[in-house]
Amino acid sequence: MRTKKVLIVENHTIVRQGIRALLSYTDDLEVIAEAVDGRDALRLAQETRPDVILMDIRMPNLNGVDACRQILKELPSAHIIALTLLTDRKSVQNMFDAGAKGYLLKDSGLDQLLHAIRTVLEGKQYLAVELGGPDVTDYRDPDVPEGKYGKSLLSSREREVLQLVAEGRTTRQIADELGISVKTVETHRHNLMQKTHLRSIADLTKYAIRNGITSVDLGEELNDDRNPVPLT
Length: 232
Description:
Layout: E1 4-9, H1 13-23, E2 29-35, H2 38-48, E3 52-55, H3 64-74, E4 79-84, H4 89-97, E5 102-105, H5 110-121, E6 126-127, H6 156-166, H7 171-178, H8 182-196, H9 201-210
Parallel strand pairs: 1-2, 1-3, 3-4, 4-5, 5-6
Helix pairs in contact: 2-3, 6-8, 6-9, 7-8
């Protein structure tokens, strides 16, 4: 049987190295690349065409949900497994709706990791036992057919711009990062405010945090019970 190629997407070096070390004990899996964030993952996925992608969710520059969507548009055969500390229902639903095939917690052992990888390679979905086990029905949007991705209030590019705005990038820095003009960035920012009905960068940042688009932490005052306008 052909050795399956694995891409690890994780912004903490020690975690990436730990996963690589664990998988080095297997004969049927090979870690062929490591990405430090979602944008790095897009590039490496195109270059290496992995069979399995272990994807963190909260990452700078481009989060795991948006990276998942974009990778699967270019590489629909990839099997993406979220590997995260997040246990809230919204995070799980967002990843499955983005096309992920599995959801695993970072405190899992090697046996669980291997079981998750081999399950998705068999064409099945995997959900961590701590979150309910094999049935992912409760975490999927019933209006999103299998193999399709959930609708988003914002376009992929607008979500990218929103994350970078929330992370404090200037308009010029965003333009350089995304390879677009300053005027285009300004247009996207205007559209973001129109669609979300927000009028300040601070409000956009709070919005991005509440919707899981950025991992920026502005303090406990943002962790309230208000329901955000859904982005996914």
